[in-house]
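new request in #modeling-help
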Amino acid sequence: MSDSEVTTEIAAEPLDGAAPETTQETEAEGTREMPPVVADQVDDEVAPFRPSIVGWLARGAVWALLAWVVFAIPGNYFSPFELGVSDVGHASKAAIFAIIGLSLNVLIGYTGTISFGHQAFVGVGAFVSAYVIVDMGLEFWLAVPIAAGVGGLQAALLGAISLRLTGLYFALVTLAYGLFAEETLFGITAFTGGEGGKNVPRPLGFENDYTFYYLCLAFLAVVLWVDWRLMRSKGGRALQALRENPRVASSYGINVKVYTMYAFIISGVFASIGGALLAQQSTFLVPETFDFELALIFILMTVVGGLRNRVGVVIGSVIFALLEEGTLVHLLHLEGILDSTIGLPAEFFGLVIGPILLLLTITRFPGGIGQQIAPLAQWLRGRRFDPHAGKVREVEVSDVRA
Amino acid sequence: MTTELGIAVVNGIFAGSVYALVALGIVLIYRASGVFNFAQAEFGTTGLFAAYAGVVLWNLPYWLGLLFGLAAAVAMGLATERLVINPLRNSSRVTLLVGTAGVALAAIGIQFWQSNEQPIREMPKIVEGVALQPFGAAITWQHLITLGVLIVVALALAVFFRSPSGVAIQAAQQDGTAAELVGISVRRVSMMTWAIAALLGGLAGVLSGPNLTFTAGHLTFGAGAALLPGFMAAVLGGMRSMPGALLGGIVVGVIEQLGSLSLFGYMSGGGEMMLFFFLLIVLLLRPQGLFVRKAVAA
Amino acid sequence: MSVLEARNLSIHFGGVRALDHVTVQAGEWEIVGIIGPNGAGKTTLFNCITGFYQPSKGKIRYRGKSITRLPVHKRTALGIGRTFQNVGLVKNTTVAENLVTAQHLEANYDPWAGMLGGPSTFAEESRLAERADQLLELLDLSDVASARVADLPYGVLKRVEIATVLATDPDLLLLDEPGSGMGPEEAHALGDTLLGLRKEFGITIVMIDHHVPLVTQVSDYVYCLNFGEVLAEGKPGVVRNHPEVVRAYLGEEPDETDAPAEAASEEYV
């Protein structure tokens, strides 16, 4: 979407003149402890912001544009250019990566547990669903819940271990687990097909790359819904409390052990769903796909996207999925520039730029992409355009448990 | 069976000497910065790529190529300290961990990019040929040199940490503020530690590289992966003990080789399986490390 | 029957005896004050009662039921709520969200159903939010409801914390220095609040505080700890004038704010 469209609309909106008087009123009523910060927020409540008609139209236009990009273009509907099968394949991959990013966000963002073995979580989902479909001859619709169950179970086992170890040591265990899964578990030929790989047929009605994209999108929508409800219900709040302070959490009556397992199971289930879809998307499944490099990329996209920021994580994941193999660079027609200036071929763009983005995120912009787009996201929800919206005041990545 | 076990142990000791070099660097950095340095093995791969460039691509004398490789590793270590560790010094340890993982991935990305034309490379050995064959295990001169370097490095570190500057480093690691008060620059100590650690990583890279063909990320997740074994060795030493890390490296090397015994039916990934379960057992039963008498707070 | 009965509690850390055969009781509807110099073992006592520490000796009973071996969250479920010396709140969220989080056990639905967005969870969520609002209003905190905890000053947080513990629906409230960081006037207002809360909720309160005037104002019974032992116990006036207490803890003459504080407490009790 275009930025100019957004900014012109802001200028057109009338200023909210009611604010100054109301501030004074509330200050007079306020108790003596009330700090100035609060006064601002109270004033927001007194005079709720309502966008003008122009404002609503502009917001509607941006929403429509977003919907068009997400829903129409990959299916070649109302699209000025024809997308090829491989490009749509990348779009499916982007949706799957978004699911995986949300899965990792549950662990790193919500519970503050780092995982260097997330490729194993995804791989377990992929191989279990492939096994169910190919070797047991069952339907895809049965394979997904089975894969999710197995994925949740292995995550729960790892979660039980995490209860006994502090952050850094648990990070080592996940690293070892990832390598163990990659080399040992996925090396079992009877289970994974070994080096020869496995060809996983897609479910009826979604064989075609265009329809398959919508299937991935539907799964992403379900995961987004669950993630949203999670953070708005007691489970998510429990996770948040115990990430920040397990003692306070338990004094609220939260069972720390149970909820740590809860988070691991959710993350494992999300990752398995992502894995099951990935097995279908690549159509040819080999163990080498799930190597340590992939685990690092998962961490990159989640942290750069912005921990605990649903939209940010999705955008970060999509960007990194598209950076792989250089799709994004091709789409933006940048390959010529990159190749001629610094001799960087498009397929390595993600690998070289990604880590730099990560380092910038943790040192300079702790809120990640989610923070950068927060003003826009707020505006789209019908609030005032505030350049400081969603500002992360502290290094949020750093409250990961150590 | 005995022969098989003998081969595993001998191979394990020589593989373990590489792990010990990596582990020493990990311990040094953990003591200085309190971080698990996920880029430690990448110092090695970077050194290896640089040494390869010197020796093979530019036809430098071997020793000069090695020197160039080690210099590249040290430069990377210093850059990591300045650009990532120092800005994040007030962040949590796990943020630092993600930072070092980012450094590793950046190095790997650049290696992939630079080796695009020829992804699989082979570094010539310092001295070609097999030196010994105990139990029928082929021990090359390269292996012997690696073990020799490890012993020299260990002795040098032991001497260094008893010298005035070594004592200063340890003082600064114990209590930064107090060290500043008596005139030790914590900043210099931190950079010095990272340089030494990167040098150790570089040595691991240039010495183990010629054993196999190598690709980008060789020491992190490639054929010569030494990152996880190095960490395990450091954990066995309680993360703070250098002799413990040294011994831990050898032990981990042997344990990993045991995974290749016919007992496991030559399954793939036997070594990784041994490592994973060994790490679990060590961390769950003796988190303070195997070779330390007193518990050290993590 | 007493609500809380901690008998002969002993615990040591290394060579330091943090608690040595300490016996503390609190009856129904009582407000019990615990005073003592820093390091006397007051917070350690709370940590034993709430389950963060396991005493090496002694028994803890809550309404006649032994809770010595129960984990923290189960003690909360029985009705023991506590505040922390250095403010126990989730700092990255708002005050209102904290109160909703603290109603973890109140939320009458399964966490899995909540995650999937079951229809009943929506109704339950709005009920929790409403209850949070009511509690905030009761403690005169409605204006800070949407403020982020990390942005609020210490004195306000101390009150927010009390509101948060009340949200866990306790029968026994353990307050760790609720008046710290407050001036005499604010501390006095806090005393009134505590007395009001007892009336409103019918709860028993055990309170650690350094503000002797505050403790005297509200307490029915006072314990003074020193070096992990009970130095003196009894009615506030008695303990305050106990020669050993004066020597160990007060070390100074009773200050002027005492007299009006006492007068105020009589009005309420």
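bot summary: Chain C has two domains: 2-79+170-268, 92-169.
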